[in-house]
Amino acid sequence: MSASDHGHTPAAWTGVTIAFIGFCISGAFVVMAKPVGFWAGMVVVALGGVVGLIMRSMGMGQAPKSASKPQAQRA
Fold it and tell me: Tens of pLDDT along 19-73?
């Protein structure tokens, strides 16, 4: 996977880091049996996705690649 540069961008790292923090918050509040804290952590997880998308739209993500590659014609 390292050869494909999948996720090696500031947008990806930031989004995943924020989502991971939200996951940890939710997990802690599940153990403490506090539903409000769990949902607050889930909001942080969703915020990580939004931040990643915003950063990608600002040009900090991976450049889009062409969808199709030209194929060589066979005789």
Answer: 999 999 999 999 999 999 999 999 999 999 999 999 988 888 887 776 555 666 6
**Residue 18, Cβ neighbours under 10 Å: how many?**
19
Place of tokens 């060589």: 72
Q: What is the pTM of this model?
A: 0.76
Query: Which amino acid is present at 70?
Result: P
Single-letter residue type at 65: K
**Which 3-state string (H, E, C) describes 14-27?**
HHHHHHHHHHHHHH
Is residue 46 helix, strand or coil? helix
List the one residue out of 15, 7, 13 whose CA is nearest residue 53: 15
